[in-house]
Design brief:
The structure is a single chain. It is built from ten helices and 19 strands. By secondary structure, the protein is of the alpha+beta class. β5, α5 and β6 form a beta-alpha-beta unit.
Length: about 350
Amino acid sequence: MSDRRAERIEALLARLERDSLDALVVSHPANIRYLTGFSGTSGLLLVSGRGAAFITDFRYETQAAEEIGSLARVVIDGTGVWERLVKLIPDYGARSVGYESHVLSVREADRLAADKLPCHFCPVTDHVEALRAVKSAEEIEAIRAAAALAGDALAAAVRQVRAGQTEQEVAAFLEGALRRGGTEGYPFPTIVASGPRSALPHARTSSRVIAPGDFLLLDFGAVVDGYVSDVTRTFVVGAAPTARQTEAYALVAAAQRAALTALRAGLSGRQGDALARDVVEAAGQGPAFGHSLGHGIGLEVHEAPRLARTADQVLPAGAVVTVEPGVYYSGWGGVRLEDDVVLTDGGAALLTQFPRELLVLG
């Protein structure tokens, strides 16, 4: 992946200048990685017009030097990174300094409100996240690779699924295939939900034994070069689907097709969400589709932009988002289909390729 870090910092500095800020303290690990390449989990980044400094502890001394290089001054502190940050700020001539108020805890924010500080701290939100919403070609290719890895792992795992296995066993098949395929980790805990538990949109994988005729919902992802994929498929296990199962699946598939066909950059998140929601509501099943249609993915599994009834933000070209309609019926089961797409002015290009028809496993 080409080095775009300096370009990203310049874009951030332009946003700070617009808001009359001399510097920004970046504390969210994903934002630090986006700007510097540092993939550790502890540290603070100070970005200013006079340069950048990254403060961390002994555990990351070698890693920070290797990953950040000459982009920023690397400072190793054995006492407290926040205290060291305050001492460093005068070196960068910053009087008005923003901090990520959506990330900091109340305790950390209270430190910045103390008397006798060398600058004035100002709460800001989503300055780096706004840059991350539009992906470069290299970022898109990393997500495409993560999507391909996830699809290959799913194809390998479902060949092993049988009625009588537990959800945890199925999760082990899938996560093992992901690791063998080269994933760097799991973007979120793998969801395996069977039978009536498939009506839980964010179910926790359990010891439930899968029965013949159950729905089996799998929601999972892979990580390549730090970038994630997010995929959901719903199957039937061990028996032909019932008429009700077929009907519910067909409705979700139709809603997703409508969204994939018409979704494009330039729509609002609300308009994107409506592409699928209108199909479900026209079938009289609106209350069964209670979550939003999708969200951005990248270094994190949930990031900007959003496709939701409350999202007025315009969807930018180059954003990568999920398209994941679903219907859920408590005590019976649910269906969700989720794919990842990159938005262009002309439409939405699929990054995930696993089949979307209703498959019977085992």
